[in-house]
């Protein structure tokens, strides 16, 4: 290996331990082991434009092992994307170098990582998006997605789904380095697992190579072969040494120890200053870039810009020859939607909202060309087959379709959707039963943190799943999801929008809202059973349902109401039955309100909120989940009827009666509320 390459790798190692030592917090050992691979990858293989970091056709690097953030920051510091002060403020308030990487494309950070297993799975999603776009616009745009994974990421169960799908689809544009150092945070890896990782990935259809992760020639050969691979994703297993270069105060070797993983090396048997000297760093200025490394990277940056300019010229030529395709591609990358007429989507009366969603998806399949819909082996039940019937599944060597058959892998599917969104140019939609949103929560949270407009479709939204019983009947799930509407992202906005439409017209509007929401993820919570269409006071129920864009609106208006009834989803129709009984039996005037999203409703002007749910009126809420779903809306004069127990196996109509979700019980509950207020 050349001296300058070793010097650059040692510089990365020195910077990594310096950051951790100054912060008195972090993970130094892994970055010391990964420095050789990182330098060779970025200096010789990764194609990007340092002067245009958001260039859509760049190669992308997806970090899985977020605890190795100093490896990423040190590399991009050499590339001029961080200042010395940024590096010195690692893990500090207001710093651009947080403890785990947070997406920052202009500095080179493609994804937020930390929860192990999700980072490389997002990389798989980006590789799918790249294949999808290349199929439609030409493989001139072909670019690689590189992943970096550690022992922990390989062990996380999500890696199985990512490995299976990447191999099945033949994602030869995905190249992953496995930093295999036999050490994890609290133990040696051999105490945790004895599996043959290479054989596992080979069984999934991967091209697997095992190399010395510190031998630069072996790294080059592996990356060259991976870039030439035509049929399979590649896993490069790099055998590395935890804490490569660490020594004691006397200069004795102190590499490979478990304790080097998760604390400053000065807290271990290694000596910080002696290790800096061993790595060729200036002990008095440990955050400095070595002079020869700085000169090398200055020339490297110029070369990267020149190389990217050649590709950009070829792309410009293609654009001149294909103006219509070029404009379409720009529209995709800008997130521009075509003109869509959601009112034109015709639904039969009394449909389940999942069935109405199927009609919308069929329309979108014919009108939105850059959408990938995925289902966790439930397309005929969650009704994403409305989309599938208009296209075909993605297949190895054929990405002309637009449906991803994810198999039974909800978490993997959701993390892949995050990667698709991070890549750009493609709209990801994922679907499963609402109760299985529990399996997806870690990826939903990452959608929210990264502000990714993933569309989640959750059907079978309540206990009315019926005979399938308590394991399949969501009770607490809506409360969990709606908590995200109350949580702000770093842009200061609600980090998630949850929509539970009350009929077919609201479902059409909910899809309109989801497609137009390009800032944060959206969840559509849809019924299995048919729902009565809500009454319309005009000729167009859809036009009235557009008020759902404000999060809540009036369905049945009465002058000077005695009580306000609020719900979302199928319970709104039940409220209307109850309101009718209240009027006919007791001459009680009830206003009925649909609130598909409390989060959006709370963003409206106070005057609007007061006009919909007056503060001086008794309020009754009905929810098929936990009462907390509506308690934030009912105020001090209110009462919520919901569930405080799991479901049971029985037909849905029986459960409605047993659990009290009838017009008759609404009448009873409201009468009790009004008696309390007298």
UniProtKB/TrEMBL annotation:
UniProt xrefs under Gene3D superfamilies: 3.40.50.920, 3.40.50.970
SMART domains the UniProt entry points to: Transket_pyr
Gene Ontology MF annotations: metal ion binding; transketolase activity
Cofactor(s) the protein needs: thiamine diphosphate; Co(2+); Mn(2+); Ca(2+)
Annotated GO biological process: pentose-phosphate shunt
Keyword flag Transferase: yes
Transmembrane segments: 413-436
Cellular component terms per the entry's GO annotation: cytosol
Domain Transketolase-like pyrimidine-binding: 351-533
InterPro entries: THDP-binding, Transketo_C/PFOR_II, Transketolase-like_C_2, Transketolase-like_Pyr-bd, Transketolase_BS, Transketolase_fam, Transketolase_N
Catalytic activity: D-sedoheptulose 7-phosphate + D-glyceraldehyde 3-phosphate = aldehydo-D-ribose 5-phosphate + D-xylulose 5-phosphate
UniProt keyword annotations, A-Z: Calcium, Magnesium, Membrane, Metal-binding, Thiamine pyrophosphate, Transferase, Transmembrane, Transmembrane helix
The enzyme's E.C. designation: 2.2.1.1
Keyword field contains Methyltransferase: no
Subunit annotation: Homodimer.
UniProt family annotation: Belongs to the transketolase family.
Protein name: transketolase
Species per Swiss-Prot/TrEMBL record: Flavobacterium nackdongense
């Amino acid at each position: 290996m050349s001296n300058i390459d070793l010097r650059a790798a040692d510089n990365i190692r020195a910077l990594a331990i310096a950051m951790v030592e100054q912060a008195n917090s972090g993970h130094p050992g892994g970055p010391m082991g990964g420095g050789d691979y990182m330098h060779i990858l970025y200096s010789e293989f990764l194609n990007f434009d340092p002067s245009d970091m958001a260039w859509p056709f760049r190669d992308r690097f997806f970090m899985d092992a977020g605890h190795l953030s100093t490896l990423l920051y040190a590399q991009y510091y050499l590339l001029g994307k961080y200042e010395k002060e940024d590096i010195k403020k690692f893990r500090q308030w207001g710093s651009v170098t947080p403890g785990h990487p947070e997406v920052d494309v202009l500095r080179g950070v493609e994804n937020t990582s930390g929860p192990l297993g999700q980072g490389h799975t997002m990389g798989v999603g980006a590789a799918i998006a790249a294949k999808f776009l290349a199929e439609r616009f030409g493989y001139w745009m072909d670019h690689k997605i590189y992943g970096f994974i550690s022992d922990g990421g390989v062990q996380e169960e999500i890696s199985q789904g990512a490995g299976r799908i990447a191999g099945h689809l033949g994602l030869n544009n995905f190249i992953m380095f496995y930093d295999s150092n036999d050490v994890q945070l609290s133990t040696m890896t051999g105490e945790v697992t004895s599996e043959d990782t290479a054989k596992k990935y080979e069984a999934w259809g991967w091209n697997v190579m095992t190399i010395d992760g510190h031998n630069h020639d072996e790294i080059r050969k592996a990356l060259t072969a991976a870039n030439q691979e035509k049929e399979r994703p590649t896993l490069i297993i790099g055998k590395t040494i935890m804490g490569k270069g660490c020594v004691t105060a006397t200069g004795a070797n102190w590499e490979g120890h478990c304790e080097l993983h998760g604390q400053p090396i000065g807290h271990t048997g290694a000596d910080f200053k002696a290790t800096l000297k061993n790595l060729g760093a200036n002990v008095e200025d440990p955050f400095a870039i070595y002079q020869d490394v700085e000169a090398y990277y200055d020339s490297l940056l110029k070369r990267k810009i020149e190389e990217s300019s050649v590709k950009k010229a070829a792309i410009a030529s293609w654009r001149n020859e294909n103006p219509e395709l070029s404009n379409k591609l720009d529209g995709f990358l800008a997130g521009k939607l075509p003109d869509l007429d959601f009112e034109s989507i015709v639904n039969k009366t009394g449909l389940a909202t999942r069935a109405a969603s199927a009609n919308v998806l069929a329309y979108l399949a014919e009108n939105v060309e850059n959408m990938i819909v995925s289902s966790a082996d439930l397309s005929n039940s969650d009704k994403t087959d409305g989309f599938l019937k208009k296209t075909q599944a993605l297949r190895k060597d054929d990405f002309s379709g637009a449906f991803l058959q994810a198999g039974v892998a909800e978490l993997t599917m959701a993390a892949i959707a995050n990667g698709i969104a991070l890549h750009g140019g493609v709209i990801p939609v994922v679907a499963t039963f609402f109760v299985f949103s529990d399996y997806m929560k870690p990826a939903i949270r990452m959608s929210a943190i990264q502000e990714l407009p993933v569309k989640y479709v959750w059907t079978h939204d309540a206990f009315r799943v019926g005979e399938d019983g308590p394991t399949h009947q969501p009770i607490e799930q809506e409360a969990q999801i709606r908590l995200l509407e109350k949580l702000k992202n770093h842009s200061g906005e609600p980090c998630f929008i949850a929509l539970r439409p009350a009929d077919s017209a609201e479902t059409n509007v909910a899809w309109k809202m989801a497609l137009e929401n390009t800032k944060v993820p959206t969840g559509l919570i849809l019924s299995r059973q048919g729902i009565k269409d809500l009454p319309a006071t005009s000729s167009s129920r859809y036009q009235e349902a557009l008020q759902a864009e404000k999060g809540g609106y009036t369905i049945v208006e009465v002058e000077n109401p005695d009580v306000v009834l609020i719900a979302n989803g199928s319970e709104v129709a039940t409220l209307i039955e109850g309101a009718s009984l209240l009027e006919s039996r007791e001459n009680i005037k009830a206003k009925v309100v649909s609130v598909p999203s409390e989060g959006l409703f709370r963003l409206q002007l106070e005057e609007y909120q007061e006009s919909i749910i007056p503060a001086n009126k008794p309020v009754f809420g009905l929810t098929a989940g936990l009462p907390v779903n509506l308690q934030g809306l009912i105020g001090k004069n209110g009462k919520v009827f919901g569930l405080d127990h799991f479901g049971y196996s029985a037909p849905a109509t029986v459960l409605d009666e047993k659990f009290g979700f009838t017009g008759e019980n609404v009448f009873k509950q409201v009468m009790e509320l009004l008696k309390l207020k007298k």
